[in-house]
Predict the 3D structure of the following.
Amino acid sequence: MKAKLISESLYKFEKKSDPLVSLGIGKKSLIIKWLDEMGVKNYTINEDYTIDVEGSVDLFNKGLDKFPDYIKFGKVSGSFGCNYNQLTSLEGCPHTVYESFSCNANQLVCLKGCPREVGGNFYCSGNKKQFSKKEVKKVCKVKGYINV
């Protein structure tokens, strides 16, 4: 009985506190450091390392040319903006944005990696390639207006 209680307690402790994070190493630490540097708040890092955000994400003019390989947003309950960067790919963007999604003024030539669903408007003008509304609708279910 005692052994069972101890193993259950250790399991719960390991689930709550990742020792690698406390040492400042590991994938989760990299994710936390990047999110903090970018000013992203109210996030949850899921077991598969996707990042859900309660609220909006504003990555406006952060000097990004791509998202790091370890950054994969999942659901964002607010808006997601990555405008005025040098992004050549949307890999790492959320798969679901409950409000608006904006990737204006980047270096995009394709929409691979953009959200599959956007509850508000979708903005993608001013990129290396001018996208059509038809191209956006092909890769994303947009409930609001599409600005290309």
Summary: Residues 41-147 form one domain. The first strand starts at residue 43 and ends at 45. The two ends are 64 Å apart (CA to CA).
